Amino acid sequence: MQMMGAAWRRWRTEIKAQSYDPNTPLDELVSIRPIPQKLTLEVWEALCHYWNTNEALLDEAVRRRLQDKPEGTQPTEMHEDAFRL
What we know:
single chain; 85 residues; mainly alpha; 4 helices; extended
């Protein structure tokens, strides 16, 4: 089961890297045709919503953590910290 979970996460990460752009509006992402990696429409929509929600949550966590840090702190440092929450 652990191997299946790891394979699923790797596959999902590859699809996100190839097909998902956080700067593209969600409605445009969902309407991409053909759907990447031969996913079903339902799975593609669910993944887009999931990634979009997590991007927003991560961005908010980074913003909050940057408020308490000295000016010049890099957002990438905060992204790493936000994943540890």
